[in-house]
Each structure stands twice: as C-alpha cells, then as structure tokens.
Design a protein that fits this description.
Layout (H helix, E strand, L loop, with lengths): L1 E5 L14 E4 L3 E7 L14 H18 L7 E8 L5 H16 L6 E6 L10 E8 L1
Parallel strand pairs: 4-5
Antiparallel strand pairs: 1-2, 3-6, 4-6
Length: 133
C-alpha cells in the first residue's frame, strides 16, 4: 500500500514526471526489466522508441495484474535507454499508461540510465519496477 508520494520537496527542484520519494507499508514486489518483446519472443517496434516503450509497459502491466496490482501500486521505475535524446517520446508513451490510472497524482519515483546497449541490439528501452502490494 502506498502511503505518500513526494513530488515537491523544499529546496529541491521539482521532478519532471517523477516523485522524489514514495513511502509504502506492507509487501513489495521487485519486477524484472521488461522490454519490447511480444508473447512469441519477437522484438516489437524496431527503431521506434515509442512503440518499444508501449510494449515494455504493456508487458509490465501484465506482470502487475499477475501480482494483483496495477499502475497505482508502482512505487519506483528504473529505466534503461540507449539514447536519452528522445526522452520526451518515452515519457509520452509511459504517460499513456500512468495518467488514466493515477489521474493528477504524481508519478512514481524514477531513475533513468543511458546504457551502451541492452541484451539484444534491437532493444532501445528496458523498464523495471518496484511495486507495493
């Protein structure tokens, strides 16, 4: 259960699309990184960050359902991207999933890391999550 999201903290710049901290009580689930892989193991959206982000988020959403949770239960994302120059594309695709679930509540805490590559060269993004159950 999420207790509170801290998007604005005195003396710290407001996060752009994330909370600085989220408090929770109860059990946590640590969800492995999800990529743009369909159920048959095929890459979705080669060279298309928006399509890959949507597929990774769709996969993550299925894991959340299996846990008995939803997007409101996510307390932290960790994003791995091969190119941060398209960050707004990622944020827009992410928010297609989060805004309907969170409304005007702040997004989860988040970290983003640019990497030289992911486990297959076709992948542009991977996202993992910590979920309050």
């Amino acid at each position: 259960m999420i207790d509170e999201r801290f998007a604005e903290i005195a003396g710290v710049a407001t996060g752009n699309g994330y909370s600085h901290a989220v408090t929770t009580s109860g059990r946590l689930a640590f969800v492995s990184g999800q990529v743009a892989m369909d159920v048959e193991g095929n890459v979705v959206g080669v060279n298309d960050l928006a399509a890959q982000t949507r597929q990774a988020m769709s996969n993550l959403g299925k894991v959340l359902q299996a846990l008995g949770s939803d997007w409101a239960g996510v307390v932290k994302f960790t994003w791995f991207v091969t190119d941060v120059s398209d960050l707004q594309v990622l944020r827009d695709a992410r928010d297609e999933f989060l805004r309907p679930a969170l409304g005007d509540r702040p997004n989860p805490a988040s970290s983003l890391v640019q990497v030289a590559g992911l486990f297959r060269p076709e992948y542009l993004v991977e996202v993992e999550a910590v979920v309050a159950l």
